[in-house]
Amino acid sequence: KQEVTQIPAALSVPEGENLVLNCSFTDSAIYNLQWFRQDPGKGLTSLLLIQSSQREQTSGRLNASLDKSSGRSTLYIAASQPGDSATYLCAVRPGSGGGADGLTFGKGTHLIIQP
Amino acid sequence: DAGITQSPRHKVTETGTPVTLRCHQTENHRYMYWYRQDPGHGLRLIHYSYGVKDTDKGEVSDGYSVSRSKTEDFLLTLESATSSQTSVYFCAISPKWDRDQPQHFGDGTRLSIL
To answer: Does A102 touch chain B (CB under 8 A)?
Structure first.
């Protein structure tokens, strides 16, 4: 059974810092990996999607990397801003080897950016 | 934003009553999913659909049933609600035959069972 772990569970940093959020998964047979943002009481917003054959994806101040063989992904946030405060979720989609479709999620990293 | 509407957005009901949650999409996507989100567990897949009348179970399907009679609607039913089903329920969609595309989520339904 796939398990996804996110470290740290919570993080509080001053505005302007660069930071890294970590995600690890136990089964490397994934189709892709997706990073989401969730604001309190809200739904999930997709940030980046990395295919299993890719090494990284970038969108603005966000950069996500994937090392499929070691079961790890990182989300790098450059020049953090108070508006980046949210919970960040990592999720993997299973490969084509059978089993249910759908995503397996980590429990998230709760990020607070201090003004 | 992806055209996903969940209804109701909030519901309070009593143990033993039936409850139906609706997910409506305007994107004509083939794949639809129901997840629940609980503190300490994160999001977990309940059921999913890969086409009209084609559904399958996810990780936590016990106590839930689903139906999809039209491409745009995916219903989640709790036949006899229990307090352990108090949760936030999210619907997600993904394009037809294209697993390379991201899943997009609705705003959720907060369900409280007393």
So the answer is: yes
Compute the average pLDDT of residues B18-38.
95
- Whether A62 has its CB under 8 Å from any CB of chain B: the answer is no
The predicted-structure confidence for A29-58, as pLDDT tens digits, reads as follows: 898 999 999 999 889 999 999 998 999 999
Contact A73, A50 (CB under 8 A): yes
Chains A, B: CB contacts within 8 A come to 63
User: 């352990």: which residue's tokens?
Assistant: B84
Pairing of strands A86-94, A109-114: antiparallel
Q: Is A93 on the interface with B (CB under 8 A)?
A: yes
Residue B48 DSSP label: E
My answer on whether omega of the bond before A82 falls inside 30° of 0, hence cis, is no
